[in-house]
Amino acid sequence: MATRLQPADAVTIGVGLTGSLAAYEMVQSGVKVVGLERGAERETVPDFQSPAIHDELRYSIRKAFMQDNAKVAVTFRNNSDQTALPIRRWESFLPGQGLGGSFVHWNGQSFRAQVADFVLRSHTIQRYGQKFLDACGPELTIQDWGVTYDELEPYYDRFEYLCGVSGKAGNIKGQIRPGGNPFEAPRAREYPNPPLKETYFGAIFRKGAESLGYHPYPQPSSNLSRPYTNPLGIKLEACVFCGFCERYACEHYAKASPQTIVLPVLLKNSNYELRTNCEVLRINLDSTGKKATGVTYVDGAGREFEQPAEIVFITAFPLNNVRTLLLSGIGKPYDPRTGEGVVGRNYCYQTTGGPTVFMDESININPFMSSGAPGTMIDDFSGDNFDHANMNPPFIGGQYVGSIMTGGRPIEFHPTPPGTPPWGLEWKRAVARHYNHTILIQQHGTSMSSRLNYLDLDPTYKDAWGQPLLRMTFDFPENDVRMSQYIVDKVVEIGRAMGGKIVVRGGTKRPYTTTVYQSTHNAGGAVMGDDPKTSAVNRYLQCWDVPNVFSLGGSAFPQNIAYNYSITIGALTYWALDAINPWCRHDLPPPPSCGGGRHARPSRGHHLGPGSERRPSG
Ligand SMILES: Cc1cc2nc3c(=O)[nH]c(=O)nc-3n(C[C@H](O)[C@H](O)[C@H](O)COP(=O)(O)OP(=O)(O)OC[C@H]3O[C@@H](n4cnc5c(N)ncnc54)[C@H](O)[C@@H]3O)c2cc1C
Ligand code: SF4
């Protein structure tokens, strides 16, 4: 029997990127928020300090920061004719656990999406025609987001300044700027910090790419290029290229994370209460099934509690967002046989990989001296930056390409050319020869949603509390494989132009496997949109069926963008919160579509209308 606690105004399920941002915005308005996090509390000091934080076995291999899949795993299969089995060892994607979530052990690669990304379906049909889109794959279920780039631009700006992103603008208000990415969507102003210093491998990539007429630019990075104080007054330091960034927390306060950009202020606010080691089992609904009354959770001692709340934010990482909706009976689950239902629909991933370029022994790369986002990039093949009209076979989408090496750590990094034995003396000789003379090129791109790919509850496997695991049914659509293979050929040419003695092709292949790291940008499953038949949440990330529940994060993407998606997630969170906040305030009248007092509002089934918008305040 659950113990019923004092009601809160709002509760967040998870305290990672979206959970900490949402809570911060809400408490500013006097709303009392409880943050429930399934993992432990942790801070830069003492938890992220060296030498312990540079333990490659613990963090990279044994995944100390990742979701405990002995308790809650995900089951996986490539198609619905197969039986899904639990992923007992994370490899392909690495969902986080603990205060700060995955935004603690992320890299800091800090891109915006492009204008066309938000209107992908209409843009594609307008530029290439319906027939072309059908030829890319009749199974594709791509759709527009219900929000445009122009609407999100101020929120991108606000989030980049919170993180202190280091970069060089390529397009300010439509004016192309030298040194930046000429393909980027227009931004209102420069990045808050200048780009990181270019690495040697970046300089070699730049030279090779330029010689072929491409347009290199410095990767926008939340590894800071200089000391910076963010708009909340929190001080960050400059990155020292320690080589332990991706999969690790930053000991130097130099990488944007909840601990370095928002938690120090949020945790001091008396309207906020953090509870760690608390696993939310479900959102509770009233007898109508149209209103959430709060959540049920289990604490570290195994005690069950009911936390009543007026508003519930699901901020649990995309896969867990979708599972929470399914476990709580919110929204109609997707049925792949009929194509009906929305929760679990349009789950999609990302296309990654790229060539390995083996250089002459005179080229010393020093790969161990790097950060999580030190790249030199080109966007010439990203999204719709190149003409797809004559592609044969046809495809849509694209990839950014760049040299991004994130640290030559000894267990993970030992490149050897094809033909090298996998062990023994010859292998050791090859590692010694190539360790310091190899450059990795990254292709990182779109992945289209398909009616064949989805998330639902597993009929067999359960978690530590007896609840069904999330089941993932996924393989890359043929469209994505065609796209990746087209770009591979171009990137191999860059590898040769860089002076590569041996260039080994990469690229996306089928079947998708969960045994190799690709990206933790799992997307979709509770997508946003204008039509409740094809979206689980509206354009403010508010559940259509239970309006006092908001599902924040990458689960809202109708298909995946080419870029690492956290900056877009941050912008979307601000966008949604800006609409929600006035609605919840004591002192503001309700938006035109709503009625009643503050506590009545979330429960009345109203959806946020355009009248509830306001510009960001900084
Ligand atoms: C190795 C790695 C590198 C990455 N690099 C980049 C990058 O360079 N650029 C980029 O844009 N993105 C990157 N990402 C992705 C980035 O980390 C995520 O986009 C971001 O953290 C998502 O924010 P979120 O709030 O949705 O989830 P998270 O930040 O993961 O927060 C979710 C939180 O919810 C908690 N939770 C889940 N379920 C429950 C429950 N039932 N009850 C209570 N708590 C719960 C989790 O423990 C977690 O703390 C990377 C991710 C990884 C793993
Ligand atoms: S590479 Fe830079 S930002 Fe990343 S953990 Fe090291 S010091 Fe921090």
Q: Can you characterise this structure?
A:
This protein is an alpha/beta fold and 618 residues long. The protein has a single domain (3-177, 220-350, 447-475, 512-612), classed as FAD/NAD(P)-binding domain, CATH 3.50.50.60. The protein has 13 helices and 24 strands. A hairpin with a 6-residue loop joins strand 12 and strand 13 (292-298). It starts with a strand and ends in a 34-residue tail after the last helix. 55% of the residues are buried. The protein binds flavin-adenine dinucleotide (FAD) and iron/sulfur cluster. Residues 13-19, 36-39, 94-98, 101-103, 105-109, 246-247, 279-280, 315-317, 320, 373, 520-521, 553-554, 564-567, 569 line the site of flavin-adenine dinucleotide.
Based on secondary structure, the structural category is alpha/beta
Domain tally = 1
The beta-strand count equals 24
How would you describe the shape?
Answer: globular
The CATH topology label is FAD/NAD(P)-binding domain
Q: Would you identify the CATH architecture?
A: 3-Layer(bba) Sandwich
CA-CA gap between termini: 45 Å
Low-confidence stretches: 586-606, 609-618
Helix content: 10-25%
Number of discrete helical segments: 13
CATH superfamily: FAD/NAD(P)-binding domain
Strand proportion, as a percent range, falls in: 15-25%
Q: Biggest sheet, open or closed, and with what strands and sense?
A: 8 strands, mixed
Mean pLDDT, nearest integer? 94
Name the CATH class. Answer: Alpha Beta
The bound ligands are: flavin-adenine dinucleotide, iron/sulfur cluster
Radius of gyration: 23 Å
